[in-house]
Design a protein that fits this description.
126 residues, 2,3-Dihydroxybiphenyl 1,2-Dioxygenase, domain 1
Length: 126
């Protein structure tokens, strides 16, 4: 019998972005992500917090269509999402929360066109 790798969470997401500075600002303002590592020789920064890391690589010609359907973040202050997104001018899709299993989710996009799911209950409670 084969052993399996026991995954406990996503370690990081590596993404191409159209504009590195604009992307860093978006994730900083909405999620409070900090710059964890500067990689100027690669036009790259690693940003995030203690639980989430995004590796952003600037590519002004990038096209996210079809690359990733969306990625999701569990949000502890879910009831504040609509207010915070509205105050930052972040468009909310589907007119607000969408029910999935034991959780609600709100969908937004970052400046590069990546769709992001913001969920109330980790993994939909599955």
């Amino acid at each position: 019998m084969f052993k399996i790798l026991k995954v406990s969470s996503i370690d990081h997401i590596n993404m191409s972005v159209k504009n590195l500075a604009q992307s860093v600002e978006f994730y900083k303002n909405l999620f409070g992500f900090e710059i964890k590592k500067e990689q100027p020789e690669e036009k790259s920064k690693i940003i995030g917090n203690d639980n989430v890391k995004l590796c952003l690589y600037e590519d002004s010609e990038m096209k996210p269509e079809g690359a990733i359907a969306h990625f999701g973040f569990h949000v502890e202050n879910f009831d504040e999402i609509m207010k915070i997104c509205t105050s930052l001018g972040v468009k909310i899709y589907y007119d607000g929360p969408v029910q999935f299993e034991k959780s609600r989710s709100i969908y937004i996009s970052d400046p590069n066109g990546y769709d992001i799911e913001l969920s109330e209950v980790f993994g939909g409670g599955l």
